[in-house]
From TrEMBL, chain A:
Gene this protein is translated from: ftsE
GO terms under biological process: cell division
UniProt name for this protein: Cell division ATP-binding protein FtsE
Subunit structure, as described in the record: Homodimer. Forms a membrane-associated complex with FtsX.
GO cellular component annotations of the record: plasma membrane
Cell membrane as UniProt keyword: yes
Signal peptide: none
GO molecular function, one term: ATP hydrolysis activity
Classification via SUPFAM superfamilies: P-loop containing nucleoside triphosphate hydrolases
Protein topology in the membrane: Peripheral membrane protein
From TrEMBL, chain B:
Name used for this protein in its record: Cell division protein FtsX
Limits of the ABC3 transporter permease C-terminal domain: 178-290
GO biological process: cell division
Stored PANTHER family: CELL DIVISION PROTEIN FTSX
Subunit-level organization: Forms a membrane-associated complex with FtsE.
Xref: Gene3D superfamilies: 3.30.70.3040
Purpose of the protein: Part of the ABC transporter FtsEX involved in cellular division.
Sorted UniProt keywords: Cell cycle, Cell division, Cell membrane, Membrane, Transmembrane, Transmembrane helix
Domain of life of the organism encoding this protein: Bacteria
GO annotations of cellular component type: plasma membrane
Length: 229, 300
């Protein structure tokens, strides 16, 4: 589903590369943690998958797309199949919960009747049924992140990538979000999650790819956060 | 594409920075008013040249001797010149106007300008042979053939006056076009600025749109329309301004020329003729500016 082949990324403003000869392959339906300290290149990794950035060297393959070579006008199609969730939720504060999720479908031209059908379904899936008419400011952090996940998932992406989705949440709420992400993963959606939250990684016992200074230093099928920690 | 989404985004965008929007519309309007004024001048000059071609008269003024002594053009040199003119190729008719007839004509022409009327004295005016030409001969040819002949004071080629006037009008046109171009440049910068501001204000929305895979077109259309709508409002305002200017200044300013049948007055038909051009120019320029701004400066 995802394949990085000898990928390097050097930002113009930075002398050393943010990613340095990274090769990783993720199968369809896998759940992968991307870990490492701040600045190790996790976000850069995810942005390459979304074509928010292009690699300086190497190939990035997502589903059937050669991401770096994708012509500009085809990039939206890629992004429609790759959902993403961030630490800061990125909700529109002037729209309701329903409106926020519907927005993702409206702007890709989905018909109204489809939107009216699938948005309530996905709100139920993320545990927000009954809160469709709330405004984001009326929600807790965990609930806001559920809205963001609903928005990323409503168009049934092949891959869902999460960049520190629990970074702003307390441990209990984080656990709830992880349960939700597991549920989404069980529907067959490939999940890549960047985090530096030890307890989450340790409790889930999933595949762990560890980055340090832009290099992959570990790739365990059933890992914990830190060996010997 | 969902029209309700796009239109509400456009209205919100215009409302969000009202002062910029107003500045943008006003600058565009002033620029387009000048452009419209210039276009009207072009149209008037075209019409003047047309009327010049249609009514190409040559006036052969007699010298003092003939003017004073031969009120009927019965003797040479006047009679000889008349018959020679009548037989010249391309001449349609020749009419003799003696001193009194010229005076009457002048009094009539200046009827609405008493000060000028005062200046006209029958004694000061020369008699004239009024020559009407057909299509196949130019006033200059006639002038050349008869210039310097005995009994002739001067030959007034009417077209000369009109040509001078046309030259003046062309200067006016060039001036308005130049100022219009400068104003248009200011309008371009304002449009570009407003769009950047607008895109900055809406970066959260557009950021989300980009991430969920909205097409570039869908993301940019509200901004483009925002620019084009203010451009079009500007062109409508410019049309209104042209009408006001016509009523307030132009009609009075052009009265001498229109009374002398040298130019037709600026009409609402002229304004109506340039209005669609202004709308087209405004939407094309604002749309193009918007498009280039989004391409160059705004990541969407
Ligand atoms: N847009 C950017 N421009 C320049 N440097 C960047 C940019 N994004 C990230 N970096 C740099 O690249 C390195 C990796 O950053 P990042 O991928 O965000 O790491 P992480 O998500 O693991 O904290 C850091 O040194 C960071 O400063
Ligand atoms: Mg990061």
């Amino acid at each position: 589903m995802i394949r990085l082949e000898h990928v390097s990324k050097t930002y113009k403003t930075l002398a050393r590369p943010a990613l340095d000869d990274v090769s990783v392959s993720v199968d369809k339906g896998e759940f992968v943690f991307l870990i490492g300290p701040s600045g190790s290149g996790k976000s850069t990794f995810l942005q390459l998958l979304l074509r928010e950035e292009v690699p300086t060297r190497g190939r990035v393959i997502v589903a059937d797309w050669n991401v770096a070579k994708l012509p500009r006008r085809r990039v939206p199609k890629l992004r429609q199949r790759v959902g993403c969730v961030f630490q800061d939720f990125r909700l529109l504060n002037n729209k309701t919960v329903f409106g926020n999720v519907a927005f993702a479908l409206e702007v890709i031209g989905k018909p109204r009747h489809t939107i009216r059908k699938v948005v309530p379904e996905v709100l139920q899936l993320v545990g927000l049924d009954g809160k469709a008419d709330r405004m984001p400011v009326e929600l807790s952090g965990g609930e806001q992140q559920r809205v963001a996940i609903a928005r990323a998932f409503v168009n049934r992406p092949l891959v869902l990538m999460c960049d520190e989705p629990t970074g702003n949440l307390d441990p209990d709420t984080s656990q709830d979000i992880m349960l939700l992400l597991e549920r989404i993963n069980r529907t067959g959606t490939t999940l890549v999650m960047a985090t530096h939250d030890h307890s989450i990684v340790d409790s889930m016992r999933r595949r762990v790819v560890e980055l340090s200074h832009g290099q992959v230093i570990r790739d365990d099928a059933r890992g914990v956060y830190g060996v010997g920690r | 594409m969902r029209a309700s989404f796009v239109s509400s985004e456009v209205v919100n965008g215009l409302r969000r920075n009202v002062s910029m929007t107003i500045a943008m519309i006003l600058t565009t309007a002033v620029s387009l008013t000048l452009l419209g004024g210039g276009l009207i001048v072009v149209r008037k000059v075209d019409q003047a040249q047309e009327s010049l071609r249609n009514a190409a008269d040559v006036v052969v003024y007699m010298n003092e001797n003939v003017s004073a002594n031969d009120p009927e053009c019965a003797n040479d040199p006047c009679a000889g010149l008349r018959s020679e003119l009548e037989q010249a190729s391309g001449v349609q008719s020749v009419q003799y106007l003696n001193r009194q007839a010229i005076f009457d004509r002048a009094t009539e022409e200046f009827s609405n300008q008493p000060q000028l009327q005062e200046l006209v004295r029958p004694k000061a005016l020369p008699a004239a042979l009024w020559v009407e030409l057909g299509d196949n001969v130019t006033p200059q040819a006639v002038k050349k053939q008869f210039e310097g002949r005995a009994g002739i004071g001067s030959i007034n080629d009417q077209s000369q006056f009109v040509r001078n006037m046309v030259n003046k009008l062309n200067d006016v046109r060039d001036g308005t076009f130049l100022i219009a171009a400068l104003q248009a440049f200011a309008a371009l910068l304002l449009i570009s600025n407003t769009i950047q501001l607008s895109a900055f204000n809406r970066r959260t929305e557009t950021g989300i749109m980009r991430l969920v895979g909205a097409s570039r077109w869908y993301t940019q259309l509200p901004f483009l329309l925002e620019a084009m709508v203010s451009g079009i409002i500007g062109s409508v305002a410019a049309t209104g301004l042209l009408m006001v200017l016509k009523e307030a200044f132009l009609d009075g300013l052009m009265k001498p020329l229109t009374n002398a049948n040298l130019l037709t007055a600026v009409s609402y038909a002229d304004v109506a003729f340039v209005a669609p051009i202004l709308v087209l120019v405004a939407s094309a320029i604002s749309g193009l500016t918007g498009y280039l701004t989004l391409r160059l400066y705004v990541r969407i």
